[in-house]
Write a structure and sequence with these properties.
Chain lengths: 205, 205
DNA sequence: CGAACTTATTGAACATTGTTCAATTTTTCA
DNA sequence: TGAAAAATTGAACAATGTTCAATAAGTTCG
């Protein structure tokens, strides 16, 4: 069976090679300015080969999207070690922003682009597990804050969504360039400053 | 001069015709699934004619984006009549969400899509006036809340940005389908519920 | 070893896009 | 009316995602 195993491994390796080449090109020149032929050239294979390993361009995008969430999830999960829930909540926000600003293109792909979700819908996967589990980290943390006397008379799930929305919204507005040239005093640090003020709203019993 | 005036008026009318046809098609089948030929067919002109009135597809998108902001601005400006600033702040949020959920495609174009901003950058317009003036409505309202004793020790500009981010983020997550199939209990009303909880965070002295 | 069979790879070909521009039609006005 | 100006056309182009018959490489077994 060693040959079939080796074959399978080689196939996986080539698939990974395609994925990484695609990622590099996407980061370098943007998703919509990267062609299938570009990817093929980068790995020194012909266009046709890519279609053996991926159904279409969206499939590559979805795979990248998945890998991104895996990593994102891991980064966030580490923070569950912070015992104080309010501290943890703040840390989740900081880490989220750090990820978004350091991996702009990945973040865009994960949270803004339509392609990966279209692929997901076409594939008829009715639950988006990765998104669900990341959101659960937040929901759990907010619940624990509530247990400690924060957020009295507040509903955990909608509140968690609002918090997620706030952090995501700030990142999204900056990434999608809706804050540039708008007359904001410090565009470089506006997200961090925004988070600081948001934390002040949240950290009250 | 009546002929030249009429000519100018006719040109404007045709430009508007193109714009409305484009908008209808965009709403109907999505921006990226609407072709220039589709727009031409809809208005019973040939493709070439469109290019007399618009430099390229992005120019149409930008024009639509501008018109959208004009309307958005008008809707929001009305709320400045609400004298109590905290009430006004909440009304701004509600109205923002209403606009976003009722004109999904327009909102997407205005706040998420890259094309209009790319056009803006290429045109070397260094200030995005419409975005600026809408943000100022929010900033002014937050400032007035502060004058009334809310948001003590908070910085108005970053706080305004955080508030904007929260509302935008929730809308964006829903529109871009990042909340579907995630296990949230009430996806239909999640934005409104989220806003309600956010308002509870904000409405404390 | 080598022939039959399986798998992997290729790249020309296709349909569809945004965009251009020389040719054609329509309008203007002295 | 007829020549100049303006408006409109649609075939043609380059670039894109995608397909698939043809080719090459690898595997198996007598």
């Amino acid at each position: 069976m060693s040959t079939t195993q080796r074959k399978a491994k080689e196939k996986e390796e080539l698939k990974e090679l395609i994925l990484q080449a695609a990622k590099n090109l996407f980061v370098e020149k943007g998703v919509e300015h990267t062609t299938m032929r570009n990817i093929a050239d980068a790995i020194q294979y012909s266009v046709g080969t890519i279609y053996v390993y991926y159904k279409d361009k969206n499939a590559i995008l979805y795979d990248l999207h998945s890998k991104g969430f895996q990593e994102f999830n891991n980064v966030m999960k580490v923070l569950m070690a912070v015992s104080d829930p309010m501290e943890r909540l703040k840390a989740l926000g900081r880490t989220y922003i750090k990820f978004a600003t350091e991996h702009t293109d990945m973040y865009d792909l994960m949270f803004n682009m339509k392609a990966p979700i279209e692929f997901l819908c076409n594939a008829e996967l009715d639950i988006w597990h990765q998104g669900k589990s990341t959101f659960n980290l937040l929901r759990t943390t907010v619940q624990e804050c509530k247990d400690q006397g924060y957020f009295q008379h507040q509903d955990v799930e909608p509140l968690s969504f609002a918090i997620w929305g706030c952090v995501h919204g700030m990142c999204s507005l900056v990434i999608r360039q809706r804050v540039h040239n708008i007359g904001v005093s410090s565009p470089e640090t506006i997200i961090e400053d925004g988070l600081e003020e948001f934390n002040r709203l949240v950290d009250r019993k």
